[in-house]
């Protein structure tokens, strides 16, 4: 399984985190976005609910999470 990347164009601009969509995002709106957050954390959110909850990961947790996406 190919791992998603998050190197697309920023979805939000201006002050604050720069959220970007996953490379696996679909045109039907089922998307996740990721951003570098203060305190060296990584945030993950549902693009349909940008004001909703954000999952926060430490750099080590993020690497483990992304690494597990390709595990079978």
Keywords:
4 strands; 72 residues; single chain; flat; alpha+beta; 15% helix; 4-stranded antiparallel beta sheet
Summarize the structure.
The protein is α+β, with helices and mostly antiparallel strands and 72 residues long. It is built from 1 helix and 4 strands, in the order ββββα. The chain has one domain (1-64).
The chain-level mean pLDDT equals 79
Share of helix, binned: 10-25%
- Class per helix and strand makeup: alpha+beta
**In terms of per-residue confidence, which ranges show pLDDT below 50 for 5 or more consecutive residues?**
1-11
Largest sheet geometry? 4 strands, antiparallel
User: Could you state the order of secondary-structure elements as H and E?
Assistant: EEEEH
Q: How do the strands of the widest beta sheet line up side by side?
A: 1-2-3-4
The proportion of strand residues reads 15-25%
What does this structure look like?
The protein has 72 residues and is of the alpha+beta class. It has one domain (1-64). Helices cover 15% and strands 24% of the residues. The chain contains 1 helix and 4 strands. It has one helix at 59-69; strands spanning 20-21, 32-37, 41-46, 55-57. Strands 1-2-3-4 form a 4-stranded antiparallel beta sheet. The protein is flat, with a radius of gyration of 12 Å.
């Amino acid at each position: 399984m190919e791992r998603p990347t998050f190197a697309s164009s920023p979805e939000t601009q201006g002050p604050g985190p720069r959220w970007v969509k996953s490379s696996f995002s679909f045109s039907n709106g089922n998307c996740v976005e990721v951003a570098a957050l203060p305190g060296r954390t990584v945030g993950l959110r549902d693009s349909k609910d940008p004001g909703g909850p954000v999952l926060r990961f430490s750099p080590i947790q993020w690497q483990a999470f992304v690494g597990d996406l390709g595990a079978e």
